[in-house]
């Protein structure tokens, strides 16, 4: 993870990573070596200086260019690691206290933000909402360096699970309780995949929209969890969520938690059941390199949504219930304890490390967001905007991606670049390579980075489409040398049609036979540390 200072307009002592390299009024002797290299690359590419001065690279007058859709590139933002899917003793299947989760996430995962998402349940709604909030307030006071939320793992009517949380709510506790009581399928019996229950889920998103419109909350987010674990969400469902509440329903877990589950990574050993969408095929149910098939299959469900030219972002989370090699255990209690209290007794130290399916937040899976400030609202805005990359096992420490075109400010992850037909688009990629051992005592090595391009073709004629044929790897890069930073460049020449590009990277230890693609995780999960990947959300390129 890297944290960069926000952009400064002062020229003196310009820090590495500001947009100073793009500001020709800043003398070269005030630039860091990295920013000087970036400026010279862009000057040589004709993407800087010419547009700034209103002159083409050949010296003629430049035509007017479209305004940039974003305010700055990747180095304007603080990149903060976190997790939006974590359980505590207030969940019917959890164990840890909120303080243990907060302190453990900081110690083991070095995270900056964390969302507590205990399951919806009658006992939770009845007993746990206020107690959870009190514990969160106490942990916020103990750990001011951690941005901590109270959220909910919503049992979605007609589907499975999703994260829901608010920011700046006037009465957050009552909002959460009302939402849970009205719309949680475990409470109101709407879990079956029926048209009426699926309509109930859309009604819930409408309720969240109303909360924002009336000022009951400043912001709300909905992110689908472990999407293909049981295959209960159809492609039509995902599109309906996104289109019903585009500022709230913004994405899904690209990789599930439970990465250390012995039966299968992510515990994705399930096959279709009575509530699964019948269009999913057997190859959709396992993970691929630990990532949900919606993300891991090139040209699959994720790409089919991006091909519409609309944002649909991915994250990666711990789904933390019980942590690998921890000695903490549950105390003895009556079988109906949770139903009577909405909370389990505090866990105790059993003295013996135990293999569990989960890793601490940030310890294996990291969701890194580009936030304009270190605040709750800025993290939520970054998630909404798609300024997100995700990584496993400490494969990389940092990532900066920017797209450049004449007359435009750079666009980064989740952003849009509007260009004139025939312009070139140059992509600059800077990777902070792993420099310290991960929790498996390895220093991972990035073996390959893939730049992936997909055509933007507009809204799908069939809302149950789950493929995007016009998606391909346009370039694979291999880091060279012994430096800690690897930089890559690629130019899309003579752009004529809208498209998007996205990135993924791997340690190269495991892939499909004779292919660059991740291998399906169909057997027992022996060691997830030997198959590490990272993915980044796309940048869209619009053609005027």
TrEMBL record:
SMART domains reported in the protein's UniProt record: POLIIIAc (SM00481)
Which N-terminal residues, if any, form the signal peptide? none
The Polymerase/histidinol phosphatase N-terminal domain is annotated at 82-158
Question: What InterPro entries does this protein map onto?
Answer: PHP_dom, PHP_domain, Pol/His_phosphatase_N, Pol/histidinol_Pase-like, TAT_signal
The answer, when asked if ATP-binding is one of the entry's keywords, is no
- Which parts of the chain span the membrane according to its record? 41-64
Annotated keywords: Membrane, Transmembrane, Transmembrane helix
Read off the PANTHER family from this record: EXONUCLEASE, POLYMERASE_HISTIDINOL PHOSPHATASE N-TERMINAL DOMAIN-CONTAINING PROTEIN
Q: What is this protein called?
A: PHP domain-containing protein
